[in-house]
């Protein structure tokens, strides 16, 4: 599959416009993550190739921001608890490893999950079968008596 243009879907400057608190000195890391996030989006949501470029840009920036906002001291932490006297505090980060993921709304904005009508031909029927000359249809009936309508060729009245 050919990658849509532009690829990656966002630049570091566009990420900074949406996330002014991008950590200083993280531009090189963000550049790599934007490339990875753009490919990730195409891998899990192939419909994104036809999505509006502005939607791809917004989603790529959101994916990278979620990935980069994991504090180092929480990396790998699935839960935590502190107790001091009668006061306790607990936490469970939702994305401790900074993995990429798409929210339901992001998938929808990229075109995934939209229903489309389609049909499937399950047998090699001809579009207009040949009926027997004595088929009921030849005499003005609204039904076929030779079976060509169900089998593609006459199967009764041979």
List the helices and strands and how they pair.
Blueprint: H1 12-18, H2 27-44, H3 53-68, E1 80-84, E2 87-91, H4 104-109, H5 148-151
Antiparallel strand pairs: 1-2
Helix pairs in contact: 2-3
Structure description:
- This is Phage Gp19/Gp15/Gp42 family protein.
- It comes from Nesterenkonia massiliensis.
- The chain is mainly alpha-helical and 158 residues long.
- It has two domains: 98 residues, no CATH class; 40 residues, no CATH class.
- The chain has five helices and two strands, in the order H-H-H-E-E-H-H.
- Strands 1-2 form a two-stranded antiparallel ribbon.
- 16% of the residues are buried.
- The mean pLDDT is 84.
What descriptors fit this protein?
single chain; 158 residues; mainly alpha; 2 domains; two-stranded antiparallel sheet; 2 strands; elongated; Phage Gp19/Gp15/Gp42 family protein
Sheet/helix structural class: mainly alpha
Secondary-structure element pattern, one letter each: HHHEEHH
Strand order of the largest sheet: 1-2
Number of helices: 5
Tell me the Rg in angstroms.
Answer: 29 Å
How far apart the termini lie comes to: 51 Å
What shape does the CA trace take? elongated
Q: Brief overview, please?
A:
The chain has 158 residues and is mainly alpha-helical. It has five helices and two strands; from the N terminus they run αααββαα.
